[in-house]
């Protein structure tokens, strides 16, 4: 009788443990991923591609969050479709299992509820536990990664080294304002990209400063200009108080400064020689490669998996004793 009670308790423990780890259960070893790409095309649908190495054993591939199930396509390097299994948990697909293959496998699928457009600015939240690339369309010359400006130049995108979470923002249509200024005998263009309305633009040759009025808060303002117009190091002021900015140097004699004013008022970009006595500011240089790690819970799953195995062994031993 006691043995039967113990058996019931163990089975209940098994039921409690299984839901906690089922999201990580899969058939096959972890796949060797040669390439992981996320493509952004000014759309609410985000395209993803994985390329995995050939394997004589079944392999498992974790997918990005938000998979559109019917969009999954799995083919080998010759273009032939391959069979695969899925592991779903909580209403979404967690991973897929690929059966043995003599050639590389290409997995493609789409994501939903990842990309949104608001006031001419696309915002994409994306994350993965391994290194992945984010690619942009040709007309996307610059974007913001976690509020830091990055100019692509002749590059197609960025690599998020080691995996991580990224908030990507970029314009649907680039809102560009061009102002012509004079420095001694030469004329230069100052380019301002922003969704905010800009007034009262002015360039002061003597102070080597640029100032203008921003009429909306919490919107990116990017100023691109010849370096010698103001001169490094730069200071950015909003209503005479220093604010954080990020800097990108994509061309030899050109610089882009980006800020996100938290209030309306006057922006001044000036050389630090003329701002003695003001509070020190921290600027962020352009990121060419991104390293932002996602905390993982694999140790938890290993512990729970170990508990599951122990429970199964104990159940088998008790069942044998009951039979005797």
Give the topology, please.
Layout: H1 2-21, E1 29-30, E2 33-40, E3 46-52, E4 59-62, E5 73-76, E6 84-89, E7 92-98, E8 105-111, E9 115-118, E10 121-128, E11 132-136, E12 142-145, E13 148-151, E14 157-161, E15 164-171, E16 176-183, E17 186-194, E18 198-204, E19 209-214, E20 221-226, E21 234-238, E22 241-242, E23 246-248, E24 254-259, E25 265-271, E26 284-285, E27 289-291, H2 298-323
Parallel strand pairs: 1-4, 2-11, 14-27, 23-26
Antiparallel strand pairs: 2-3, 3-8, 4-7, 5-8, 6-7, 9-10, 10-15, 11-14, 12-13, 12-15, 16-17, 17-20, 18-19, 19-25, 20-24, 21-22, 21-25, 23-24
3D architecture notes:
There is one protein chain. The protein is mainly β and 324 residues long. It has a domain at 35-171: Immunoglobulin-like (Sandwich), CATH 2.60.40.3650. The protein contains two helices and 27 strands. Strand 21 (234-238) and strand 22 form a beta hairpin. The longest helix has 26 residues, at 298-323.
